[in-house]
Amino acid sequence: MGRTGILGGTFDPIHMGHLILAQTALEVLSLDRILLIPTGISYLKTDHKVGSAADRLEMTKLAAEGNPHFAVSDLEIRRGGNTYTADTLEELHRMEPEEEFVFLLGADSLVDIVRWQRPETIFALARIAVMTRGGEVPADILEKTEKDLKERFGARIDHLPVRNIDISSTEIRERVRAGKSIRYLVPDAVAAYITRKGLYQES
Questions:
Q1: DSSP secondary structure code for residue 183 in this structure
Q2: What is the pLDDT of residues 18-31, one digit of tens each?
Q3: Residue 203: which pLDDT band, with cuts at 50, 70 and 90?
Q4: Helix and strand numbers, DSSP H then E, in the chain
Q5: What angle do CA 71, 7, 198 make, to 5 degrees?
Q6: What is the domain partition of the chain in residue ranges?
Q7: pLDDT tens for residues 81-95?
Q8: What is the rounded CA–CA span in Å between residue 23 and residue 20?
Q9: How far is Cα 10 from Cα 16, in angstroms, rounded to an integer?
């Protein structure tokens, strides 16, 4: 049995912060691999028009190249419709029933997870690794949330302290629109793809 960390996201575009986080999780949690999963249609993402699934998937593949411990899955994109983590975990378990899955998410998402679709399925099928950054969620609120989730769902929760990397996909899209460099914010192959495809030129 192996241990797979799952890092999902819109990845519009994927950037160095995502990759540093993935590598940190791989090492700190003693994982065998990280599975990067671009979302299909996130029912929680309403702040901007999300880029095409094909482009986001290709950029994620380019970003993962060269790291033998990173893999990319298109299962959420192939599934169509809204993306629900419970569905994704069920599909992964069907494909690899002996694998242990560790779902990576931010402390802010953990506080909100009871509003997700079928949280009981998420906790039944995966350990949770909470990525905590200083001050992101007050310690007392996070502690109460974890206690409630463990009592209500039998949640298995680990902590993954991560450095606060001030890079966002929003900033990258804005820089591209403004004609500014995104070098060192995304892998070179991703930057080249964005230029070649003319992505993020319009708001």
A1: B
A2: 999 999 999 999 99
A3: low
A4: 9, 6
A5: 75
A6: 3-165
A7: 788 999 999 999 999
A8: 5
A9: 14
- The token pair at 48 is 């901007």
Q: E-assigned strands of 43-99?
A: 70-72
This model's pTM is above 0.85: yes
Cα 31 from chain centre: 16
Q: How far apart are CA 85 and CA 67, in angstroms?
A: 25
Name the amino acid, one letter, at 169.
S
- The residue among 104, 112, 113 whose CA lies nearest residue 162 is 104
What span, in angstroms and rounded, lies between the C-alpha atoms of 74 and 38? Answer: 7
Digit-coded pLDDT (tens) for 27-60: 999 999 999 999 987 555 555 578 899 999 999 9
Other C-beta atoms lying within 10 Å of the C-beta of residue 166: 7
**CATH fold group of domain 3-165:** Rossmann fold (3.40.50)
